[in-house]
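Appendix C reproduces, verbatim, an entry submitted by the partner laboratory led by Prof. M.T., so that reviewers can inspect both the input and the predicted structure.
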Amino acid sequence: MKLTGIKVLDLSLFLPGPLLTQMMADHGAEVIKLEPINGGEPNREIGQKRNGKSVYFDNTHRGKKSVQVNLKTEEGKEFALRLATRCDVVVEAFRPGVVTRLGMDYDSIKARNPNVVYASLSAFGQTGPYQNKPAHDLATEAYAGILSANLGFDGKPAMPAIPSADMLTSMMGLSAILMALLRRKETQQGDYIDLAMMDSLLACVPNNLGAVFADKAPPVVKQERTWGGAAMYNIYQTLDDKYIVLGASEIHFAETLLNKFQRPDLIPLCRLPPGPEQDPVKDFFSTAFQTKTQAQWVEWFDGVNVAFAPVNDLRQGVDDPQIRARDMIIEDPLGREHIGIPIKFKNEPGRINFQSPELGADNLDLARRLGFDEYQIQSMQDKGVFGTQ
C-alpha cells in the first residue's frame, strides 16, 4: 500500500486528527494513538455503541494501535518521546501551548528526530488574536462567516449537517503531510505544519466571495447561485412533505425540464443571473413539485437528462446503490457496517483493518520495543504512567 513503512504518532482527539490518521492507516501506515489517562479518546463514549464500542470511535480509529500514557510524568514523557523519535509523522490537536507544557512540541521532538513531519491542528492556528480561544467546528464556522450562509427555510442560520471545519482541516492536513513527506525524500528534512480550522473554511469558498470582494459587502444568501438564487439549483418540497433537488443550472438542463413541463416561456429567465429575476421559475417549480410525491418524481425524472435527486435521509444514503457499488459502505465478518475508503488507487489500493483498539492495548508491547526493560515497565505500571484500562 502507498504508505506502508510510514509510522505515525497521533496525539489528537475527537474528529479532525483521528480521521486524518485513519486515512493513513487505511493505506498502510502504522498509526499509534496516544490516549490520555482520564478515559482515553473522548469519542470512545460519544454516541451509539456496537459491541461495547462507539460507532464514532470505530469510524475514526480502525487499524490503529493504542497506548495510554500520562504525559505529566517523566516516565510517560520519555515513553512518548521515544515513540516520536521512531515516527515519520506526529499529529496533535491541542490548544496552542499545551504540547509545549507537555514536552511534546515540535522543537522537543525535532531535537530527537530532525526529519519529523509535525502537524498541529487547531481552531484558529498558532498565531493571531484568537489563537488561545476555545472552539470547536461550530464556532469557527460562525467567526469565518460560513454559518451566516447556512440558512434554513426560515432564513435563519441553521446547524450545519457536516462539521465542515473539522473535515476540511482533516483533509488539508492529510494533503500537507503527504506534501511534506514527498519533499523530505529530496531534502532529508521534515517540517512543521500549522493548520487552522478557520483557515480551511475560508479557503473553500472561492466561488462565494463575489460580493464580498467586488462590492465589499456580505452576499444576499438566497440570491447567490449556489445558495438558492438559481431555480435549477435548489431544493423543492413534494406532496408527501419530502424534498427533491435540481442540482445543475446549465441552460440545456433548464431547456429540457421546462420543455417537458410545457413551460418554454420560462427558459429565458433561467438565462438571467441568479436572484429575483428567477423567482417566477422557482415559484413554478415550488407549485409543480407539490403535485406528486417524492417517489413519483423519482419515477417521472427517470431517463430525463436533468440533474435531479431525491433528498435521502442518512439511512437511505448509506443504502443508495451508488454508495454500495463504490464500496463506501462495507460490512465486516460480523455484519457491522463501516465507512469505506474514498481514495481509490488502481495499484496498491487501501485495505481496511476493521478492528479498532482497546484502550492502552499496545502499552506493554510498544514499551518493550522502545527499549524499556521489564523492571522499568512494572515500575511505570505501578506509578500509573499507563493509566488504568
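The mean pLDDT is 96. Additional entries are available on request from the coordinating office.
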